[in-house]
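This part of the workshop introduces the protein records we will be handling. A record pairs a protein's sequence with a compact description of its fold. Comparing a sequence with its tokens is the quickest way to learn the format. To make this concrete, we reproduce a full record directly below:
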Amino acid sequence: MKMKKVLAICLSMAMLLGLAGCGGSNSGGTNTDGAAPESSAAESAPAQEEDAGKTEEASEAPAQTEDVTLTMWTFPFGTDEQGAEERANYETMAAEFEAATGIHVDVEIIPWGNRETKMLTAIASGEGPDVMYLNPDILKQFQAYGVVSPITDYVSAETLAGYSESLLDNSVRIQGELYGLPVLVDLGRPVYNLDLLAEIGMTEDNLPTTWEEYDAMLAALKEKGIYGVYCNYPSGGVSSYAFAQFFSEGCDVVKEDGTVDIDSEAGKKVLGRLASWYQNGYTPTDSLSIADDDASFMSGKVASTLSSKGAGFFVRMAPDITFNWAAGPILSGEGGQYGISTVGSLGVSKSCENVEAAVKWIEFFTEVDRLQEWCNFGGYICAKEGGESPYQNLKGYAYLLENMDCVRGEPNHAAARTMSSVFTPDLQAIVSGDVSLDEGIAKMKADIEGIVSTVDALRN
């Protein structure tokens, strides 16, 4: 890819992401960004165009397995207090890999904030990582822009045998080519305050199983003067649980071919539901503009949470709950059963000069025993079949492991990442009543189509 095009992508990305104002949470990939809180960091300065040309030529050079140094960019998956332990884990893994292969790996833990632009700018300058952690929306985006390398020809059949085909197809396989290997899976489910639900005669034995039943629960709680849920309207389609609802009702939002179906009957149904929660008083009024990060549920002020933290909720937050609680079934609609979810993967940058060596490192990283240890550190679900978790007997956690077929995090298009810049304000306008449902849907469709068009124009 030519330098000028990559820089154009960086500029466009910066503009779109600046409008989106994306936030994160320490959720292993589930929130809008799929992980720990975002913070800013300095960007790498771009190099000259001729350097980019040298990088592209180098990427085609024969693979070497001696005197090779790789750089991997990943992001903090533990708490701040675990920072030293997390770094030590990577250093131990890299030392074991170097002893086995002679390939040295420098693992850099980069802040989550604005990471797409950081990676794109670094890759454009020829100073980018060889291996990088990618959520599905960013992976699709980078594939479309030609800044991530296909690795199909380098991955062994033995490695692929450890994954389900559906997981590969839904996260790292695009048009028949592999662009990474999954390292973690995350899946969220509703959680309920049983003390508040007792006010409407509901117990752990009759929790909602469908979105219609959930709506009925919210209405019954309102009659008792109890808020049923804090809906995080300003935090994007993933974190507000909107995408899970769209998929459950049969709306793709954006299809793989770029068709926007937000104006379908299913899309209208979900947007109408999200608006009714606010307009009927089922959710606090400040939920329209403030994302509370589960604080209202944890303090006992609302009867349920559709948490964006996925497995991390049960590992890090549930032990602090002081009231009687239960995790409920993943809610289903006419299109199926989906929870808020994501898949984290390791991919190879286009600026990598030795794809074969990079894939060796990824395969080493994803050997099941090693991978499950890495996932256990942060409390996430191992992406590889056969991986076990010390959390599987933790209340609420085991159900996640039994429902991996409910994982689908973002629309299946490269625009999924940047469409929050228009989706969120358009949703807020609908919810607040500033526009009618039909007017709001028409504007949202046009705005999303504009994002799709912009992304497609930047494709390789």
User: Anything to note?
Assistant: Residues 228 and 303 are 5 Å apart (CA to CA). Residues 19-64 have pLDDT under 50 and may be disordered. The first strand starts at residue 68 and ends at 74.
